[in-house]
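#lab-general

N.A. 3:47 PM
ok so I finally got the sequence cleaned up, no stray characters, all 380 residues accounted for. can someone with queue access submit it? mine expired

B.Y. 3:52 PM
send it over

N.A. 3:53 PM
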Amino acid sequence: MIVYFDKQTLLNYLTPATYTVSNRATIPSLEGFHLVCTYDNICKVETFDNEKGIKTKFECRVEEEGNCVIDAQKFLQIIKTLPDGEIKVTVDANFKTIIESGPSHFDIKALPGEDYPSIPDIVGDRGFIIPQYLFKKLVNKISFAIAQNDSRPVFSGAYFQITKDTMTLVSCDSNRLAFCEKKIELENRNKDGSSLNLKFIVPGKTLSDVIKMIRDSEDDMEIKVTRRYVVFKIGEFTLFSKTIDSEYINYERLLPKDHKIVTYLKAEELRSALERSSLIVEDRLNGSIRSFVKFTIDEVLSISTNSSNGNVYDEIEIKTEGGSIVIAFNCKFLLDAIRVCEDGEIKMSYSNPFSGVLIEPQNKEEGTYKYFVMPIRMNN
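B.Y. 4:20 PM
back already:
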């Protein structure tokens, strides 16, 4: 195989492909880029980590077509260090690989392309099209509550429910629940012409990769769903992933509906106060006792934190209904939710010091969100 690449083009296509390269593969070829270069001057690239994969293709200049697997991390590091311009890659019959650019020359070893597992084309027959910026905005609203280290797989992903005029996303990590709903007319891509009615759970790691690949633009992306997979078509890239095969929790039952105390305040003011508290608060004190941020709600909202790092106190003006309450939270858990609230007034509803807080926008116009954060029990 003898192929000539433009350096920047090669980086633009290989960098996203690394998102689905396996780091601990039992099959060595899964740690590499599978490159297939053909005489029509096209290079096809695929990567796969047994759970998700990426396929893409781009133009190059092919002098001799071929098919090989090159270690992804090593190849990408080499390309980054080479001078700008044209890069020549030669792979001989023994898979000795020479990478050249100007006076620079690297000699590494590749693997036969036949060693790469056969990855079928996954083509969903149900799906929709959505602008990239909107998908990114909605996912960012709920991604903070996707569990990172939970033994229950259902909590390690985000739940999607799609109908002809509504898109709903939910995540939950046992301490927090995030709900986001958007009224929108999505372009229907169901092959049988049926109305959109999709329910699926996407792993959090997959969503993280997708968000890194899309832009804050009006450009469309297509999402297709099969019984076991979800497929994201983003420009020249196709990312596919196994979905989480489980029934999602009854999240509506978890959102409290009867509240004794309701407060109204500005999200940006609470965000600033919690960020100040986060400079002092500790997740663990002396290895065992958790410190926390304490809310005292009366005529104002008093926010206080005491830890081995020091003390902090703040007050925020609020409008309140229903009386007073003292309640404590893990500062990070609450701050994560407030950070993704829109600026403006929010509504925070409480039942008692042991039932948590429900956070909503005061004015619900084009879309809505709800965040529920569990409290921390104070020793006193």
